[in-house]
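Researcher: Quick test of sequence recovery. C-alpha cells follow.
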C-alpha cells in the first residue's frame, strides 16, 4: 500500500486536508491508514483527486501532428493529473462525422495516457453553414459539439 500524506483532497464536498491510501490501482481509504504502508509520499501543498477532466484540448490529430498528437497530448494530460480530455474538432479534416469520431477513439485507445472523448464540429468542415448529423453523433456517444473558435453563420 502507498500513502499520499498531507495533500488537499478534492472530493464531492470540496477540498479537505486528508491522506489517501492506495493499493495497486485502487484508493482503499481516505483519512486514517487501514494498515501498514510500504511507501509514504509527502504531497503537502498539492491537490489530490481521482483524476481531472480537461474539457478543451487541442490534440491536432489527425492532420496537424507536428503541433500535437494523441500520444504526446494524452501523456502531457496524464502527467498533469488529467485522466480524461475532450479533444476539440479543429483537425484536418474536421472531426464532424461518426466515422471521424470513431477513428479518433480507436487510435486513442492504442496510446497510453488519458482517455480521449472527441468533440464533434457543430457544422460540416467547421465552415459554419451546414449542421452535422447531431442525432447520429449523439447516438455514437458524442456529448460536446463546437466549431471551436469559428463562427456559425446561420
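Model:
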Amino acid at each position: 500500500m502507498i500513502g499520499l500524506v498531507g495533500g488537499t483532497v478534492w472530493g464531492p464536498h470540496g477540498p479537505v486536508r486528508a491522506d489517501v491510501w492506495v493499493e495497486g490501482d485502487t484508493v482503499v481509504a481516505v483519512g486514517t491508514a487501514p494498515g501498514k504502508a510500504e511507501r509514504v509520499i509527502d504531497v503537502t501543498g498539492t491537490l489530490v483527486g481521482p483524476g481531472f477532466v480537461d474539457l478543451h484540448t487541442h490534440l491536432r490529430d489527425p492532420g496537424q501532428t507536428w503541433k500535437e498528437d494523441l500520444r504526446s497530448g494524452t501523456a502531457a494530460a496524464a502527467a498533469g493529473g488529467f485522466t480524461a480530455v475532450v479533444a476539440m474538432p479543429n483537425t484536418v479534416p474536421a472531426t464532424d462525422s461518426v466515422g471521424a469520431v470513431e477513428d479518433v477513439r480507436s487510435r486513442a485507445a492504442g496510446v497510453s495516457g488519458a482517455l480521449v472523448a472527441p468533440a464533434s464540429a457543430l457544422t460540416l468542415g467547421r465552415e459554419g453553414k451546414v449542421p452535422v448529423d447531431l442525432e447520429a453523433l449523439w447516438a455514437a456517444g458524442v456529448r460536446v459539439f463546437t466549431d471551436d473558435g469559428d463562427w456559425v453563420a446561420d
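The chain has three helices and ten strands.
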